[in-house]
Amino acid sequence: MARxxxxxxxxKILDTAETLFAQQGFDATGIDQIxxxxxxxxSLIYYYFKSKDEILNSLFNDFIxxxxxxxxxxxxxxxxxxxxxVDKIIREHSxxxxxxHKNVIKIAFAESLKEVAEIPHLNIFKYFxxxxxxxYAIAQKIGFESERxxxxxxxxxxxxxxxxxxxVIFSDEWCDYYNIDLQTASNLFADSVGKLYSSLVREEIRxxxxxxxxxxxKKHKH
Length: 222
What we know:
By secondary structure, the protein is mostly helical. It has ten helices and no strands.
C-alpha cells in the first residue's frame, strides 16, 4: 500500500471518528460505526489503531501539535505588529483557529465532565495546562517575566480559556436562538473578552520593556 494511500486512509479514520465523537459522544460511538461511516472495513481501522482510545489520543495529540504551531504564528504576528489589540488577535487568530478545531474542543470538554477518578484522555484541563506551559515558556524566551502561580492559572482558565471554549462550542446554537450572524457575534465576543483580558494583564504589561521583548522575540524566531 502506497504511503500516500495509507496516510489518506488514516486521516479518513481520524476525520470520521472526530465527527462522530463530537456528534454523539466518545462512549456512544463504536468502531463498527466509524468503519461503516468511513466506508472501510473494521479490520482496516485496527491496522492503523489498536483501539478507539488510541484514535482519540491521536486526535488530541494532533490538536496539541497544531496549537503549539499556532501559538508560534501568533507570536510572530504580534512581533510584526506589537500594537495590535487583544480583541484583534482573538478575532483574527484565536477564534478562527479554535473554530476550525471545534469538534476536538467539544470532545475534550465532554471528556472533562466524566465522573471518573482518572480520565485517560487529554481532557480540557490537561490541554489548558500544556497550552499554558507552552505560552509561559515562549513568554520567558521573549523577555516577558511573570510568576506562574495558582491565581494566574485560575484567572487564565476561567476568565479567558473557558469563555473562549464556550463560545466555540455554543456559538452556532447561540446565533440560531438569538437570530444573529456568526461574524457579528464573533466580533462582539472578541471585543468583550479582549477588554477583560487586557485588564487582567495590564499591570504586568506596564512592567514590560517592549523594545527588549521585540529584540528577544526576533532572536527566538531565529
